[in-house]
Amino acid sequence: MAEEHRTGQKAEGAVRGVPGTRGEGSGGGSAPPGEEVADAWAELVATARRTVADGLVVGTSGNVSVRVGDTVLVTPSGVPYDRLATADVTGVDLTGRPVIGTLVPTSELPLHLAVYRTTDARAVVHTHAVHATAVSTLVDELPAIHYMTAALGGPVRVARYATYGTPELAENTLRALDGRTGCLMRNHGTLTHGATLAQAYDRTAQLEWMCRVWLTASSVPGLTPTLLGPEQLAEAGERLRGYGQRG
């Protein structure tokens, strides 16, 4: 990672010019303006580091991406998030062809691209969160333990297991995501998407929290957690659509 040894000023200038961009005549696609890429990359790195700080991933597990036009910026493979520099920006087009940078993208790139090609997602967060991963080994669907289930589109399904980084895993995950903005991945972790990185991250955090609540309630001997029904979730969903500040 030679880029890390540059001064901050040089790195910033390099990214503003989008280093490593494949332009016309070089066989690659075109990338968005450098300033837009730099801002999106900075937010992506901050989000990736937050997954570590909040205990949702360990080491280099998990990955984050954001779509800027038809370019997908994504965390590179095997690089600790605290070592990512401004000039390490990594981007591909929607076919997976590199258009920005020289680092190898995450091994889960097929998964991210499948989500972007089939949904209106603008950001994707994938984690190996402890409680969510534990739940993925126990059930085929996270029981509706809390009304925030509605924020993900309904009861959260568990995608069938497949080896990481494979087209099969992407296909299984897309099935679990049908009508949802988040899912669990069998013996693997979570995946959520949203209109922004902040929204995708919030959905990941909420999903991990709901898994922890269900595991905690289910562990009480002799008692069974009460669950919410379809009507209760539908009502909660309506109220959530009007939640927060307007404008």
Mind explaining what this structure looks like?
The chain has helices at 8-16, 34-53, 109-118, 130-136, 167-177, 197-218, 230-241, and strands spanning 63-68, 71-74, 91-93, 98-100, 123-127, 141-142, 156-159, 182-185, 189-194. By secondary structure, the chain is α+β, with helices and mostly antiparallel strands. It has a 9-stranded mixed beta sheet, sandwiched between helices. It is globular. Mean pLDDT is 88; it is low at 1-28.
Please outline what is shown here.
37% of the residues lie in helices and 15% in strands. It is an alpha+beta fold. Strand 3 (91-93) and strand 4 (98-100) form a beta hairpin.
Labels describing this entry:
247 residues, alpha+beta, nine-stranded mixed β-sheet, 7 helices, globular
User: Which spans of ≥5 residues are poorly predicted at pLDDT below 50?
Assistant: 1-28
Largest sheet: 9 strands, mixed
Question: Counting H and I runs of at least 4 residues, what is the number of helices?
Answer: 7
Order of helical and strand elements: HHEEEEHEHEEHEEHH
> Helical residue percent?
25-40%
SSE map:
Layout (H helix, E strand, L loop, with lengths): L7 H9 L17 H20 L9 E6 L2 E4 L16 E3 L4 E3 L8 H10 L4 E5 L2 H7 L4 E2 L13 E4 L7 H11 L4 E4 L3 E6 L2 H22 L11 H12 L6
Parallel strand pairs: 7-8
Antiparallel strand pairs: 1-2, 1-5, 2-3, 3-4, 5-9, 6-7, 8-9
